[in-house]
Write a structure and sequence with these properties.
The complex is a heterodimer of chains A (287) and B (386). Chain A has 287 residues and is mainly alpha-helical. Chain A contains eleven helices and no strands. The longest helix of chain A is centred in the N-terminal third of the chain and has 37 residues. With 386 residues, chain B is mainly alpha-helical. Chain B has two domains: 155 residues, no CATH class; 208 residues, MetI-like (MetI-like fold). In chain B, 74% of the residues lie in helices and 2% in strands. In chain B, helix 10 runs antiparallel to helix 15. The radius of gyration of chain B is 28 Å and the shape is flat. The relative contact order of chain B is 0.07. The chains are: A mainly alpha (287), B mainly alpha (386).
Chain lengths: 287, 386
Amino acid sequence: MTSRALPVTVMTLLLLLTWYAGAAWLNWPQAAEALTRAGKPAGVADVLAQAYAMKRPILPTPDQVMVELWNSLTGYAPTSPRNLLFHAWVTAEAALTGLAMGLVLGILLAAGIVYTRTLEASLLPWVIASQTVPILAIAPMIVVILGNIGLTGLLPKAVICMYLCFFPITVGMVKGLRSADPLWLDLMRTYSASGMRAFWSLRLPASMPFLFASLKVSVAISVVGAIVGELPTGGQAGLGARLLSGSYYGQTVQIWAALIMASLLSVALIAVVRGLELVLLGRAGAR
Amino acid sequence: MSDPTGDEATNPYRTSLRSAVDWGLVAIGLPILAGLAFPIAERSGESVGWFDGTAAPFFLVGLVLAVIAAAFAPKRVWGAWVELAGIAFAWLLPVHLMNGGLMLSDAWGLWLFLLGTMLLLWRVMAVLAGVPGWTRSVLVPGLFGLGLLVGWEFLVTGFEVPAILLPAPSRILVAIIHHAPVLWEDFRQTVLTSVLRGYAMGCAAGFLVAILADRVPFLARGLLPLGNLASAIPVVGIAPIMVMWFGFDWQSKAAVIVVMTFFPMLINTLAGLGNSERIQLDLMRSYAAGYGRTLVKLRLPNALPFLFNGLKINSTLALIGAIVAEFFGTPVVGMGFRISTEVARMNLDIVWATIAVAALTGSGLYGALALLERVTTAWHPSMRQR
């Protein structure tokens, strides 16, 4: 851990430095123009100060984004639409619902594939092909179509998340359900355990490490799916809607704040999965 | 586990009714028999039965003959082919009925008949899945997809689902042919212009930085955690920012793609470069090979499966990045533009056609890379299993 701390810190600092330099470079023309228009002196220091303090910069500085994020998080009640927590919750709700649906679908498919040779030969290639379809790109379309049959709000977004989530879970679970030691499977047979019993008592517990590895991937892409699913709803609620309205009104700081919030949300959800993994697998004696 | 050709067939002590009767066939026959009692179509409010003047019995007999012939085939696989021909023949029945101007939405006899053919298709797939090689890896998934498409087609046209919800595959195909010039322009703008350039730049950048990071371990230790973090960040969200910076044309799409594809390529290349074994490296060292030679002769070839993994992941990501970025602004051409504007105009035929093109493009890119991987890494241990 300590051997990593230094390089990571250095790289992060480098990143921040590049960010500040980029902000100065990108905002320079606008800042200089604003100063000359206001008739103020336009020395290097003045322009730099102006470039770092613009209301609608081309690239906001990290501190501007952090201030915006902080103000939004602390300035309003968590239920207010001006608070990013509210939007993050809307997105997380869709992402988690989709994840739950994807989990059920993924495990069912995996069980089918593991137990039926025909399904393995016929379905597995399609599971892979399903992910080569740029579903995220057509997500808005799905939202609109489901809206036509009266499904609005949470569900269309969750469906997109489900489509994205089920793939890692299916692939992981197929591997996981097959990971039970053949010796143990033979032992189950000598106990004359039924297929169901072998599934619940041996194969499913054996697959848990694989499931959690998949879940961590799924949670992250589920958040992406929810955000993209919010793009066509026209800026009501959710982090995707914040991104869209920010892009409509040129509010770059708002876009960046929403992006940072989205990253924090993914990281937090992954941490939750990680915590669950530690607790559950710890109790099962896997670690 | 429940495979009828498995345990029961080979176990000589279990010759009961259970194995003497082909229960799979009975299960398939039941819905078809039950279907005989129901009407198969409706003509101006009156239901039409199986033997009411249509050519329906002809198709029924054809299917039954195929199944009987298959049962006497000297090899199970030959029988499966005969059954497949029977299924294809039986699928002409709804086409025939619809050509006659009949309504199918209440025709439960017909639907049970089609259910029977689908079950029979499953049985054919089960047999063919036992044939190794080309049949198992290409034909069986192909039949599965065909079954899905045919089921989709019959359900949508039979129950007259409004095209605004879900058009039939045939209708999408017609739309593709009808709008081919527009679709080609979109394809050229999105795929040939934006995606390929962005993909090449992003993958090359990830690859080169990975080589650099491999040379300078300090860089690798700093970049890898950031790369893992980046995989958790919804990178697509930078699309509006990039459109603001680089304008509406392909540059902004390429920029989004570069950012999206950079880290997957970096991580995969680094993982691949670390994949060479100590003993191989020692051998290169004993040959007095320098860093560059070891890289080119040993470590890069060894890293190929990882490189292809990154390239395959990125091919889908690139397509997604370009289309999503087009939602935020584009010249009046491009797949993302077409989807977002034609959805707003409820012109769904062309939207579905665009989606089909996008899906085919994504699968095509992935397939091409998979093929290239097969050709270039045929020697690699990871390919030996297949």
